[in-house]
């Protein structure tokens, strides 16, 4: 009973973070991306039913408080609440193996789920905006022009048209990538808070073992190839631009997955070192501060690890007895 009551509170807090965060300030954006955290806390601390209750309450509260613009509640429900509920719910699934040990839903499967959710988000946005009057390309270019124009003040549109044309295909994928990072960080933070307070229901998975599946490697490289070459080979017809936007979005989704694997590689290679904390602090600072090159660097490390096996060759390997 108590976990369910706490789940109701968590859902209300989640919706509050999102609605209040829409103020437009930098702190407001931080609150929006933090909104899945209460859902994860409810699910990882109270079980799958609690995550469902928290998600339902969050959706209802968001729609009630944003009744004038149902789109706000829809975005919150589809891109933040539903993925947080699915990941938290599956994370609490367990079974007993032949030796009677409890086997929890694996971390690698949760990563695959996060990637699949990101890909579905790209498909959903592409379809919805593609059905609009301006289409996918026109809608993104118009909104990006408005944003850049606001930054440039009274400058003529011709002065920043080149900037818009350079970055327009990245917008959709960048937004979804940011949402994916938000979900990953909120899930990890929720588990950490629950472990520190002794309220976690499942043990923390070994992050250093994280690895992207083979299908993601193939699909990611294929998407990257199309995104780079489509316009050069096929021209700049509207259908080709649409394809470029979609495949660029797919590529950025896969990059997030390989970024997480790259960070896991650093955790694995530094296991057992007395100065591991300092190294990892520097790594995360590089990823956060030197955008986008820092993130791309460690995403490249994660991709290269598929062939380089860095954790085995340059670290202590996959010895489960060693602390992370």
Describe the structure.
This protein has 324 residues and is mostly helical. It folds into 2 domains: 99 residues, no CATH class; 219 residues, no CATH class. 76% of the residues lie in helices and 2% in strands. The chain has a two-stranded antiparallel ribbon. A hairpin with a 5-residue loop joins strand 1 and strand 2. Helix 1 runs antiparallel to helix 2, helix 1 runs parallel beside helix 4 and helix 5 packs antiparallel against helix 6. The model has no long low-confidence stretch (mean pLDDT 88).
List strands and helices in order, with pairings:
Blueprint: H1 2-21, H2 26-34, H3 37-46, H4 48-65, H5 70-91, E1 94-96, E2 102-104, H6 107-130, H7 135-152, H8 157-167, H9 171-197, H10 214-234, H11 238-269, H12 276-289, H13 293-308, H14 310-313
Helix pairs in contact: 1-2, 1-3, 1-4, 3-4, 3-5, 3-9, 4-5, 5-6, 5-9, 6-7, 6-9, 6-11, 7-8, 9-11, 10-11, 11-13, 12-13
Features of the shown structure:
324 residues; mainly alpha; 2 domains; 14 helices; 2 strands; 76% helix
How many β-strands, per DSSP? 2
Using the alpha-carbon principal axes, give the shape: globular
Mean pLDDT: 88
Unreliable spans: none
Q: Tell me the β content.
A: under 5%
What oligomerization state is this entry in?
A: single chain
H/E series: HHHHHEEHHHHHHHHH
For the report, how would you describe the main beta sheet? 2 strands, antiparallel
Number of contiguous helices: 14
- Biggest sheet, strands in spatial order? 1-2
How far apart are the termini? 35 Å
- How many structural domains are formed by the residues? 2
Relative helix content: over 70%
Structural class: mainly alpha
Nearest-angstrom radius of gyration? 21 Å
